[in-house]
């Protein structure tokens, strides 16, 4: 990854302004166990009552009661990633088992190919003129022979997707195993490549292996990479990389999402909680108490109710947090850098 830029420390008044209009996160009593999956690797909210969730084997549509409303099984094997996203027509984009991107219709009756990628695992075949056996009297014949012209470890593969509500484009995080680099590609509504983001201003690689991707309200593209949250503007210029709080503590980021105030939420396997930072990378608070026996790994944000859906790595339970305007933080400043705010309860 390229040079890591850390956000400048803000004044107390600036940090106070960041929390104006932000309600304190409160965990709802609803914590459904999602039937049909063993864990929740990624969440795509559809309505205030429904969301798509996946584990290693399948994607399911569930509700707040944890019921399975629909399921798909042709899922890419790279399951610890943001493999799906929902558009404003409630259509589902997802990466299939052949590393192509498909779109499921709103009525869930038909699936269409949105775009092919160069990482398809389909093995092409050719016809070769050869003898039917090694006997000297054998007849010559055409036979089908499988072959591959690419090395799968050096081929770009999609790992995460995000539908843009602002442009209708699809943002895709891509990676190569060898030499362990990544990029972000933008596809228009016709499935045509419109943009590629890979390098910073110094021509250094921005990403090692994007796992989750989302678009912020201000147009920034937020990517969960190996050990940092990498943020660029809409044109692909590197703005900052968030590497944890307090400074030097490190970050193993997982699921990400943003809210209407352009705040960024990110799961962290080191602190075993969810960080909230502002649009400029300044730490604001922890959404939940650190988890001892489990850890948050996936996030989804419901724009209808301003609710944060949190999925865990080792079980199939969802926790839902809501942000109440009545609890707006206006009288107290958040702590200075190096101190944490722990708000809300841990997930069950």
Structure description:
- There is one protein chain.
- The chain has one helix at 12-19; strands spanning 25-27, 42-45, 50-54, 59-63, 68-72, 84-86, 92-95, 101-104, 111-115, 125-131, 140-146, 157-163, 170-176, 181-187, 193-197, 212-215, 221-224, 229-232, 238-242, 253-258, 264-268, 273-277, 283-286, 296-302, 307-312, 318-323.
- The protein is an all-beta fold and 348 residues long.
- It has a 4-stranded antiparallel β-sheet with strand order 1-26-25-24, with no helix packed on it.
- A hairpin with a 4-residue loop joins β17 (221-224) and β18 (229-232).
- The radius of gyration is 22 Å and the shape is globular.
- Residues 15-21, 121-125, 144-150 and 326-348 have low confidence and may be disordered.
